[in-house]
Known about the structure:
Blueprint: E1 6-9, E2 13-17, E3 26-31, E4 35-42, E5 45-50, E6 55-60, E7 64-65, H1 84-91, H2 96-105, H3 112-118, H4 124-133
Antiparallel strand pairs: 1-4, 1-7, 2-3, 4-5, 5-6
Amino acid sequence: MAQNQKMSVQVQDGKLRADPSFLGKILGSVAYGESVTFIKQQDPWVYVSAKGGQLSGWIHNSALSEKEIVLRSGSADVAKTASQKEVALAGKGFNADVEKEFKTRNPKLNFEWVDRMEKFVVSDEEIRRFIKEGTLSPQGGAS
């Protein structure tokens, strides 16, 4: 990618972060179809400028497309986009179809606790506090 290249956000709610990490402080959000300007890259993270230069930060490259996304009035495109969570899961090779197939192949397994765990919500601040209090290093989960 070339500096100042325009890119489009291809997720419903892309988070711009202070550091190239899913644990980086969230500075702001960019929406599906919004245009951002490429500044630099630290694979798999891209530093971009958004909202007319009023906001900049790191975003995972899976949330961006080099193709221009054009929204039309009444378009259902946004409803079809992946959430940031879905993008992260897909990057790990997991999605609803994979889960369905696994359940079909393993009908006797009890997924009750998996379903309960999926409903837990942990904020970025709680994760940062846990890492700090536990004197952990986020290097393994930085990307």
